[in-house]
Every structure is written in structure tokens, then in C-alpha cells.
From TrEMBL:
This is Lysophospholipase D GDPD1. Its main location: membrane. InterPro entries: GDPD-Related, GP_PDE_dom, PLC-like_Pdiesterase_TIM-brl. It holds the Pfam family GDPD. The gene is GDPD1. The keyword Transmembrane applies. One of its GO terms (molecular function) is phosphoric diester hydrolase activity. Keywords: Disulfide bond, Hydrolase, Lipid metabolism, Lyase, Magnesium, Membrane, Metal-binding, Secreted, Transmembrane, Transmembrane helix. It comes from Caerostris extrusa (Bark spider). The lineage of its organism: Eukaryota, Metazoa, Ecdysozoa, Arthropoda, Chelicerata.
Amino acid sequence: MCFALFIRISVQSSRVQICWKIDLHLTKDEKVVISHDNNLLRVTGVDVNISDLNYKDLPLLKCPVNKEGDSNKEKKNSFTEEVFEKFPQVAINIDIKVNNDILISKVNELIKEYNRANITVWGNFSNDVTKKCYNLNPQIPLLFFCKKSFIACISHL
């Protein structure tokens, strides 16, 4: 699977906490898939958008399998369900990449189906998307972003 893994080491408790960060998009046939970009040129070499294709028609991803990057195994985009099934106890940070009510609703249903509301955060840089997430299910913690200038101001207080 091609998605980011964040590992945070807690010095106080001497344990490792793992949190997956995944970005989600919706295919034309309304499958929720993991991808940072809607356009797949960068990761497949094919200039197409996830939202314009059915899942079965998505080009294969080119994911290097070792640190040298000399092996080009190809793989389909992963479904969110796959991650939830394979990693049921791992916290997940979900970035809803587009303002799409169907995507938000489907992600909400998946979070509820897999009983993940207590170990999942969701949202987007867009306040509109984050508000929609909250309005649909206020039980799921929100992911939110601050503008750099705001962060810079706070850090100097």
C-alpha cells in the first residue's frame, strides 16, 4: 500500500505509537480509494483523474519496494476498507481530499462499520469540508490545519 506512516516515539512512556495518514478520493463508481492526488500521472505515468474512472479502470500504481527504488512492482489503489481490516487497532488520520458529500458520507459509514470513531480523526484543509465532517458525525474527532502565519504568530507569544 502506498500511504504515509507516521511513527511517534513517546519518551515519557517509552512506547511507540503508530498513526497512519491517508488521503481519500472517490472513483466514478463511488469506491473510496487511498491516494494523495486525484490525478494519477505522478504515481502511474497515466494522466487521468480518479474521479473520472471506475475502480476497475484505474491504472496500476508504481511503488518502489525497497529503499533504492529499483523495483517497480505495480499495485491498484487500496480501498479504505483494506486498511481498516488489516490494521484494526492503528489510529488513522483521514484527509478528505475533495469537497464531495458522497465521499464524506461513505467515509463516515466505513468509520462506523469498523468501529473506529475513537481511533480516527478526519477533516481537510478546507474549513467547508471539515464542517461537513463534523455536522455528519460529531463523534469523530476532527483533523484541522492552521495557516502558517497563524502558527508563526502563536509560536512567538
